[in-house]
Amino acid sequence: MPDTRDLMQQAERQCQQRGVRFTPIRRRVLEMIAANQGGLKAYDLLDQLATEHASARPPTVYRALDFLIEQGLVHRIESLNAYVACPCPEHAHGFQLLICRHCGRVEELHLDDVNAQLTQRARDLGFRVERQTIELLGGCDSCKAADR
Fold it and tell me: Is this entry keyworded 4Fe-4S (predicted)?
């Protein structure tokens, strides 16, 4: 899991370079997601945020999440309808997620050759890929050891 402080500094720099606003709410949502090794659902984020900001409502969280995804700082885990921090937002290529079904830990991979093969095969079939989500569900070594 990436160091939250480093991730926040990187996010700050990236937003500054792109000329986009990294508001306190956006920052806080990213901090909450980054502090969790698994995915967080939007309503879990809302519950946490509401303890700090009484005015926090679902649109507040969803707008922050949309921004963070757009900036490549957060990924949506489609199968869990949850969100996870991107440990390397400077990486502009596709990614794959390893998700432990026991503890919820999420690891991000960058197998560019896999992405390139899928994109090329789609192109060969006359299909233009707009977004690619590859999620691999299984068990991590820690959970397997605990089962023994």
Answer: no
